Amino acid sequence: MDLERFLIIGAILFSIGLYGALSKKHAIAVLMSLEIMFNGINLTAVAFSRYTIPYSLSSTTTMVENASRFFLTGHVFAIFIITVAAAEVALGLAIIITIYRSRQTVLVTETSELKQ
Amino acid sequence: MMLGQGTESTIVVEIAFWIIAVSTLISAIAVVQIRDLFRAALFLIVTLLGTAGMFILLRAEFLAGVQLLVYVGAISVLIIFAILMTRDLEEGSLSHSFRLPVAIISLIFMGLCIYAITQTEWSIIGPELGDSSEIFANSIPNLATLLLRDYVLAFEVVSVLLLAAILGALALVRER
After folding, report:
1. Which residues contact B92 (CB under 8 A, 6 or more apart)?
2. B:132-151 residues touching chain A, CB 8 A cutoff
3. Mind listing the pLDDT tens digit of every residue in chain A (116 residues)?
4. What is the CATH number of the domain that holds A101?
5. Residues of the domain holding A43
6. DSSP sequence for B47-90
7. Which residue of A18, A101, B61, B123 has the fewest CB atoms within a 10 Å radius of its CB?
8. What b-and-e string marks burial along B120-130, b requiring 16 or more CB atoms within 10 Å of the CB?
9. Burial of A46 (0-12, 13-18, 19+ CB in 10 A)
10. Three-class SS of residue B159?
11. Chain A interface includes B45 (CB < 8 A)
């Protein structure tokens, strides 16, 4: 039950973030919901790396030297996700501020020029 | 597999887990429910802190530190700055008119995930694979080896991505 409860919390966090990202009008609220989704995914990756082993280690044919470090593969995934999330937030907030400067709104429902 | 070593520490870890889990989920719900965007950002910080606590419970202390530095230290400050800069047209974080179907879809997705998680037979690390707790206690050298030897291409690509994002953000917000 130790693995499952972390996975369930990750799934609930992801679903809360999904609801916020799809239902919010304010662009910054959408970005914050995206952060919650990223956190759910990170939690899932780290929980998997704590309690399970990568598939390549479970078969003894492809043994590498010091293969035990691959127990930390989930941590590497989480580090990459955090980096990409940081880049995404920096760029997203820059876009939001540019839109706010040029048309005085931050609602995603009112910036629909690309639709027409 | 136990989280702590002794019986008392297991109980303490158990209590800590439930406190962190409940506060994380409640503040995550508050982020998507509260009208005032600034308070929502403050609850987002609580959620990020709760995730850092979860990382510590999962023996990922380095990641907990990275989470604190990057998310709580940098991203939340960035978000709060953006909220303050766009505040004069404040009408709160409203929802679309189709929030009910979105809520139903999210609930169905969550139910499917929880069903799949509880029905799957996970192959938990067994004692026959050696002492894995030693790897997690001494994770930083192993992480460095993974990042700079096994995943070095992804590491370099992600650094170029970060540089491109910084340059793009600077070019976007520059006054013309």
Report:
1. A26, B35, B36, B37
2. 132, 135-136, 139, 142-143, 145-147, 150-151
3. 688 999 999 999 999 999 999 998 888 999 999 999 999 999 999 999 888 877 766 665 555 556 677 788 889 999 999 999 999 999 999 999 888 888 888 888 777 777 76
4. 1.10.287.3510
5. 2-115
6. HHHHHHHHHHHTT-HHHHHHHIIIIIIIIHHHHHHHHHHTGGG-
7. B123
8. eeeeebeeeee
9. buried
10. helix
11. no
| Phi, psi for residue A24 in degrees, rounded to 5 | -90, 145
User: Among candidates A31, A8, A105, which has minimal Cα distance to B31?
Assistant: A31
ipTM of this predicted structure: 0.89
CATH topology of domain B1-118: Four Helix Bundle (Hemerythrin (Met), subunit A) (1.20.120)
Q: How far does B162 lie from chain A, in Å, by closest CA?
A: 6
**Measured CA distances, B84 to A19, A25, B88 (Å):** 24, 17, 8
Hunting for tokens 């700079």 — which residue is that?
Answer: B148
Per the DSSP assignment, residues forming a β-bridge with B143 are none
Residue A64, helix vs strand vs coil: coil
Total count of domains within chain A: 1
Q: In chain A, what are the helix, strand and coil shares in percent, each to the nearest 5?
A: 80, 5, 15
What does the alpha-carbon distance between residue B173 and residue B155 come to, in Å, rounded to a whole number?
27
- In angstroms, the CA B18 to CA B75 distance is 26
Q: How far apart are CA B27 and CA B49, in angstroms?
A: 10
